[in-house]
Each structure stands twice: as C-alpha cells, then as structure tokens.
Amino acid sequence: MAKPKVLVTRTWPEAVEARLSRDYDVTLNADDTPMSADEIGAALGEYDAVCPTVSDKLPARCFEDGLRAKILGNFGVGVNHIDLEAARGAGLTVTNTPGVLTDCTADLALTLMLMLARRAGEGERELRAGNWTGWRPTHMIGRKLSGRVLGIVGMGRIGIATVRRAQAGFGMKVVYYNRSEPGADAMAGLDAQRLETVEAVMEAADVVSLHIPGGGANRHMIGADQLKLLGPDGLLVNTARGDVVDEAALVAALEAGEIGGAGLDVYEAEPQVPKALMTRQDVVLLPHLGSATRETREAMGHMVADNLDAFFAGRDVPNPVG
Ligand code: DGY
C-alpha cells in the first residue's frame, strides 16, 4: 500500500524529520521558507496530511476546494492560526501538542519577568554599545520580584507552571483570572486567589502574565482600560498570543507612562513588531521563543508523528483539538 503523503510546512528537528520520512511519503521544507495560505490551500488538495505551525495561516478559504487531506497535525499547542470551524466542516481531524511545551513556556515567562524587573535587556544594550562607565550605586536600578504580586490571566497548564516557579523561586503572592475554577489536583500546593475579572487582576498585581489562547473572545482582552489598571509600576508579560493584547493600546500606555514595562514573546502580526516598541528601553522583545529548546521541539514533533500514526492506523488520535 502507498504511504500517506505528508507535507511538513517548516523545517523540523532532524530526528523527527527522519522518523516521518521512514513512515510516510514526506515533503519537507528544506529551506524553511514560509508558505502562503494559498500554497497551503493547494497542498490540502494534494496531501493526506498537512503539518502546519503557528507561522502558517489557514483561513477558511484553504478548506473550500477538493480536499485530499484528512488530518492537520499542528506542530504547537496554539491553533488560532487555523480556521477550526472550516477545517472541521471540511471533515479534517485537527491535532496539537499540549503539555510538552508547558515547562519551557513558563520558564520564558519568568525570564521576561526577570529581564524586565532587573532591566537586563537595557543593561546588555548599554554594555554592547560601549556606554558602560563602571559600577555605581545608582546605576540601572531595577525592582525585586520577591514578595510582589503576580497576576495570572489563564490558569491552565502554563499558567500553573508559571505560578509554581514564581512562588518557589521568588515567594510571589498570586492572584488570577480563569473563566472556570481550575481542578483541585492541578492547583495542589499552590497558594493563589481567584478573582472575578481580568480587571481585578490587573489592579491587584505588580506583574501580570498572560496564558490564554489567542483569537475569538480573547482578542484584545488586554486593552487601554485594563492597562491603566496595572499602573505606572506594573509590568505586563505575554508569552501566549499577540492578539490577546491590543498592541496600539500597549504602545500608548507605555508612552503615557501608564504602565512600567512589557516583556513580549508574541505579537499581533508576527514577525512584524510595532516600530514604536523597538526603540523603547522599558520593553523586552523576544522572537516567539516560548517552546524553543531542543528537547521541547523534538517532543512536539514526535507528538505530531504519534497523532499521524494513530490516525493512519485507524485509531483515535491522542491529541484531538476540540
Ligand atoms: C505553540 O505551541 O502554540 C507555540 O506558540 C509555538 O511554540
């Protein structure tokens, strides 16, 4: 029997590409160039499986004409780049990679908090520019994280992992917003107070870290009104999705001194980053590195492969979306 035809839209870790190439008739993207939505739409007519990433866009029009594909094996946990309703309407199974990137993403949220609080990016830029004149008592004074209030928006796996790190490492007090009460098991050993609204969290916290999916009702959940509540010393960290924050409102809030700073790993129109942020010292800007460790990226790839294996063997996929 012919092997299923699989398209991998970007370059993946070698070990996973080797595994897929053994079991499938795979087209790999050796030069790692992004594909357009139209190219992906056309591929859905030629391949049995397409494996996209967050840097691909799959709007409804991708799913309109004569599809051959039966499964989208997304390399990543977030799927707001895929029009899920259209994909499901066209009969596709969609899978993702939950769990394996939790620790790395939480690590990066803490990295951003520390970099912001201790002005690490700013200090490094000063030194590399040759502008450091030596140690002095009032040079580049930052803030302590210890004992501060951390606000979490979205107490899922990554939110919880972030809280564990912040409490164990820095003794931070925690308030959070989550639509529903998180499971008691997941929250075991955590001392965190659930508040009724995002606004209440913004007002109570010194540092707010976002951990909700993008798109839908979450788009621009953090806008001008919410940012104002964070206050002139408040720090915002986003390792979730860019569109959760209204970027124009964020720029305005920073420019007006309404918040103290922002640490961002994700943006509304990646890879574009608002020009106004590029020159600011009170922001830390990373290029969507949340899951970027060798172990995690390999685990993500193997998870996609496990889902394809199950699907093409006629078994239930382990990680269906929705
Ligand atoms: C995800 O998995 O959704 C990340 O944003 C990509 O690492």
Q: Could you explain how this protein is built, in words?
A:
It comes from Roseivivax halodurans JCM 10272. Keywords: NAD, Oxidoreductase. GO terms for molecular function: glyoxylate reductase (NADPH) activity; hydroxypyruvate reductase [NAD(P)H] activity; NAD binding. Belongs to the D-isomer specific 2-hydroxyacid dehydrogenase family. With 322 residues, the chain is an alpha/beta fold. It has two domains: 115 residues, 3-Layer(aba) Sandwich (Rossmann fold), CATH 3.40.50; 173 residues, Rossmann fold (3-Layer(aba) Sandwich), CATH 3.40.50. 34% of the residues lie in helices and 14% in strands. A seven-stranded parallel beta sheet has the order 8-7-6-9-10-11-12, sandwiched between helices. A five-stranded parallel beta sheet has the order 2-1-3-4-5, with helices on both faces. The mean pLDDT is 97. Bound molecules: (2R)-2,3-dihydroxypropanoic acid (DGY). The site of (2R)-2,3-dihydroxypropanoic acid (DGY) has 7 residues, from loops. (2R)-2,3-dihydroxypropanoic acid (DGY) binds next to loops.
